[in-house]
Design a protein that fits this description.
The complex is a heterodimer. Chain A is α/β, with parallel strands linked by helices. In chain A, 36% of the residues lie in helices and 26% in strands. In chain A, a hairpin with a 4-residue loop joins strand 7 and strand 8. By secondary structure, chain B is an alpha+beta fold. Chain B is built from 15 helices and 16 strands. In chain B, strands 8, 9, 10, 11, 12, 13, 14, 15 and 16 form a 9-stranded mixed β-sheet that branches. In chain B, strands 1, 2, 3, 4, 5, 6 and 7 form a 7-stranded mixed β-sheet that branches. In chain B, strand 12 and strand 13 form a beta hairpin. In chain B, helix 6 packs across helix 7 and helix 8 packs across helix 11. Classes of the chains: A alpha/beta, B alpha+beta. Chains A and B meet through helix 7 of A and helix 14 of B.
């Protein structure tokens, strides 16, 4: 049987939350099982922030997934969550409306919004590769996982200009684009040794990844 | 003025303090009050100031998502290099002198984040083409009865305007409401040497328009900066609130129209001599401004709120267009008199940085001359209410930033360092709006916009 194509689209001039959702769905689509479920799905799911005005709707329509800003009038399932804490180790439980009538759609949304990821080392490699090419970027970046003191150096091993320390959970969140590096540093979730210019470069990359840059 | 004559001038005028006036990328007046000895000691480089003044947004959040190559590796100082020709006695504080400054690095090199220096560079390029520009701004603002404290408590909504609420402009009954404020402001502007051509009330709530005399481009912008600052200070002194926000409510917004003319060898370039035909230079100048208009809109409409003003039939243009004496177009060409032949750009909002507005206007024209860009057909209909397919201007901060990012003509004149910095700051502003309380679906002015822009821009 020929598999239906899966296309993930985003509205023109999108909002950050729409871009973030589209990026998450694209990451999810790398997993064949999730991709298959998305291909088959029909229905509209909204994600609505409980702490600010951000909201977006995912429209599943037989292989075409479109993300638009705001809560569409024809949503079947609405997930209301604290968007700033969704990536916490123990995030507050979101409120889900419409799940009883649209169980499969609600389960699909939960599944695809929790995109799979690699090890922190794998994600760090993908995250840092473009950074190391940027003008003024650190020549070498040392990342230390504070859970088990495992570490990796990316780029020039003999010229480590920047060092990041964090738990596996925090590192994966940063390198997958679930959280913003500078904010995590500000909030004390990770620590770092390096210059402000490198911090800004890393944070810029972090925001870009969050918004869908590869 | 040099250091010696400055010393004499400060002494003769019994000046004790110098107020340094730098202008941030967002158009905010930034500086210090410095004792005269310190001011003189620091010449010609000027006083040091934290480089964060070019490193944070209008809400006070540091830009920490990129690092421009011209920034130092850590937080440090830059200089406010005073333009001693702008030294003037403060009109309301006789022992204080005001001086406009450029932001420079520690070696005295202008920073790409310095809007005034960016304009100077564009004017220099114009001079290299044998052209001399003059410019004059129309500054619109709105004055409200309550004090800033009361306005903040009311969240800037429902403020009693200093006018009758009817949507009429040029109504002397309305201008009388703000006469006490204007008397003081105009006296202060006289004291600062800012030549006011005239003023009148406008159709928005508490709205006024002040027309300034033409001057060379940098001076014309200096006038705007000092006028807006003097107006804010006068309102503050009198216990009123003033705003230059592009669209503070659903009524008419505030514009910052700019007229400019060109002369070559003393002759007016835009004057259409025979039968009203525009010269080749004028056509190319217009062609360049039209070609760069989507990108330059980012400079003319710099904030989230700016785009709420650019709606149909609300006095601001919505399509990239030009015509002879048509106020619904983006460019209004007035070419029939040798003494007043000029082009008015009607896009920019009251919240725009005047140096960047004029830099964008002139850079577009320069690009047109350099690349012989022919002007498109002039618009012969109303510029409002046109269907899809017409060249609508960008209608969001991101669309405008994207246009600026991909435009090569403006980059060549304004400089890539400036353009990159500018685009990054606008995308940052978009991110701040959406992630710190703005509402993407709001069709009306949001609280986030009022809190961020009402008093400051």
């Amino acid at each position: 049987m020929k598999l239906q194509r899966l296309t993930i689209e985003i509205e023109a001039d999108p909002t950050p939350i729409a871009m973030i959702l589209a990026a998450t769905l694209r990451r999810s689509a790398r997993d064949p099982k999730r991709a298959t479920r998305m291909r088959k799905a029909r229905g509209n799911v909204a994600l609505k922030s409980t702490v600010d005005q951000q909201a977006a709707t995912i429209r599943f329509n037989k292989g075409i997934v479109r993300v638009v800003s705001g809560v569409s009038k024809d949503v079947h399932v609405t997930i209301a969550a604290d968007v700033n804490k969704m990536s916490d180790e123990s995030p507050p439980k979101p409120q889900v409306h419409g799940a009883a009538a649209h169980v499969r759609l609600a389960l699909l949304a939960a599944k695809v919004l929790d995109a799979p990821h690699g090890t922190w080392q794998e994600e760090a490699r993908v995250f840092l590769a473009p950074v190391l090419e940027m003008p003024g970027a650190p020549r070498g970046v040392r990342v230390v996982c504070t859970d088990d003191e495992s570490e990796c150096v990316f780029g020039d091993l003999s010229a480590v200009d920047y060092q990041i320390f964090g738990s596996q959970h925090c590192l994966i969140n940063i390198f997958c684009g679930n959280t913003v590096f500078g904010q995590d540093l500000l909030d004390g979730r990770v620590t770092a040794v390096g210059t402000l210019s490198h911090l800004a470069t890393m944070t810029g990359r972090s925001i870009a990844v969050m918004l869908g840059a590869s | 003025m040099n250091a010696n004559s400055t010393n004499e001038w400060l002494t003769d005028n019994r000046i004790r303090w110098v107020k340094t006036e730098g202008v941030s990328i967002d158009g905010l007046v930034i500086g210090k009050y410095i004792g005269t000895k310190k001011f003189l000691d620091a010449l010609p480089d000027g006083n040091a100031i934290a480089d964060l003044v070019v490193g944070y947004d209008i809400g006070g959040t540091p830009y920490l998502a990129w690092w421009d190559e011209w920034r130092r590796d850590a937080l440090g100082d830059i200089h406010q290099q005073p333009d001693l020709d702008t030294l003037v006695i403060s009109s309301d504080r006789p022992s204080t002198a005001n001086v406009l400054c450029d932001f420079t690095d520690l070696d005295g090199k202008p920073l790409p984040a310095c809007a005034r220096s960016t304009l100077k560079s564009v004017v220099q390029q114009l001079g290299d083409l044998g052209l001399v520009a003059q410019a004059a701004f129309e500054v619109e603002g709105m004055l409200f009865q309550p004090s800033p404290r009361s306005s903040r408590a009311a969240k800037y909504r429902g403020l009693a305007p200093m006018s009758h609420p009817v949507h009429l402009g040029y109504l002397h009954y309305n201008s009388r409401h703000m006469m006490a404020f204007m008397d003081i402001l105009l006296e202060r502007l006289d004291g600062l040497g800012i030549p006011v051509e005239g003023w009148h009330d406008e159709a928005g709530p508490g709205q006024f328009e002040i027309n300034l005399d033409p001057a060379d481009p940098v001076t014309a912008c200096d006038y705007v900066v000092r006028l807006k600052q003097a107006a804010k200070e006068t309102a503050l002194d009198l216990g009123h609130t003033i705003t230059f926000m592009a669209k503070p409510s659903e009524e008419y917004g505030n514009g910052l129209h700019v007229h400019h003319s060109l002369r070559r060898d003393g002759r007016p370039v835009f004057y259409a001599t025979d039968g009203g035909e525009l010269s080749e230079t004028t056509r190319h100048w217009i062609g360049g401004m039209m070609a760069t208009m989507p990108a330059a809109t980012s400079l003319f409409a710099p904030n989230i709120n700016s785009f709420r003003r650019m709606v149909e039939f609300a006095a601001a243009p919505t399509v990239a267009s030009w015509a002879q004496d048509n106020k619904s177009t983006a460019l209004r060409v007035l070419s029939r008199s040798p003494n007043s032949a000029r082009i008015e750009n009607r896009i920019s909002g009251g919240d725009a940085n005047p140096y960047l507005v004029l830099a964008g206007v002139l850079a577009g024209g320069i690009a047109g001359l350099q690349h012989h860009i022919e002007a498109p057909e002039a618009l012969t209909v109303s510029g409002w209410g046109l269907p899809p397919g017409w060249p609508h201007l960008p209608n969001s901060i991101t669309q405008a930033a994207d246009a600026m990012s991909s435009d090569t003509l403006l980059h060549a004149v304004l400089g890539t360092s400036f353009c990159d910095y500018w685009v990054n700051t606008r995308r940052w502003e978009w991110l701040m709006y959406h992630t710190t309380g703005g509402d993407a679906t709001a069709s009306a002015v949001t609280q986030w916009e009022l809190d961020r822009y009402f008093e400051l821009v």
